Amino acid sequence: MRRSTGAVLGAAILLSGCSLTSDSLWPSLTGDEPAGKISETINVPPSRAELNRQPSYSAPPMAPSPSPNMAYSGQPTGTLVGQKVSQLRGELQVLKGQLGQQNGQLQQIRQTTTNNAQRYHGTVAAIGARLQLGTTPGNPILVNQWNAAQAELDRISGDIATMNSLANQIASNSSLAAYVLESARAAYGLTGAIDEDHRQLALLEDKTNRAVVLIDRLLSEINEDVARQTSYVAGERSNLTTLSSSIKNGEMHGSSLMTRSFNAAAPPPVYSTSSTPRRGFVAGGRQPLVVIRFDRPDVPYQQALYTAVSKTLQVRPEANFDLVAVTSNRGSASEQSMSQSTIKKHINGVLKSLMDMGLPASRISLSASSSRAAASNEVHIYIR
User: Is the pTM of this model over 0.70?
Assistant: First the structure.
């Protein structure tokens, strides 16, 4: 009886020990400490793989290093120099805001100018294509297109005026930047400052120098744009004038005489627009470049005149031209007087044609002469 009682008590102890051990080994699903956890722990010897594993090291978190912006936008130090720094910092922020707005305005003006130039060249190309195929003199469709091209060119001129105004505004920022820079440098000499004040002054001086660089860059870009667009508009106005002359005649002459590329070429030939062959009139040993004989109404001399003058300017870009009105001294006095009256209208027409082709009036001189060999009124063009 005693043996059976002892065996029962021993089995109960073993079962209770197994229950406690299993409860302590399984984790709690709720995250709390398991109930009835014993205070003693069982030390399990590590495996060979765990013994060979290198220990991992995690560095402690480092304190963040102070950035220049933290010092630049630091709290006021309470000193007189600190108050000066706060005042100059506010003025610099205003300056940077103005520079940002002005840079945006410049980009917008550039985009507007590009759109106007594209519309202008599209209209001019349409006119040139119609003239290249040939059309009636003074075609009203081409006249309307020419007026539209003129309006687009006027818009580009307005963009240049806006650029000039913006350049003046950017230039005015230079004085404000110079004031902030000089004030920051002068603040170093004030008494009662601490190290933090001088640190913030140094950062303020650096940022002001960057603003000065931005101002100089903006001014340089906008001045280049103004110079380039001004030259472009001047050349295109001359081309429009030549294009107007082409529309009047119903045929394409070419680009303006003053906007052509001057490349070396062979000496210009002598052109004559009359169907009557005759030796060229020689004045002072010079051979005329062009001889226009008005021996019939509406002599079509414009294309030949343009070709001869343009070829001359390719060889001699600095060349000037003499227009000589030649009349016949044969016949009665009344016939000679009538010829002289008519030749004035002819030479003025040739002069206007050259100016419409883009040749400045300052490079053209007029004179008159008479010859017994002239069968009709003539206008001679000489290179000078």
Answer: no
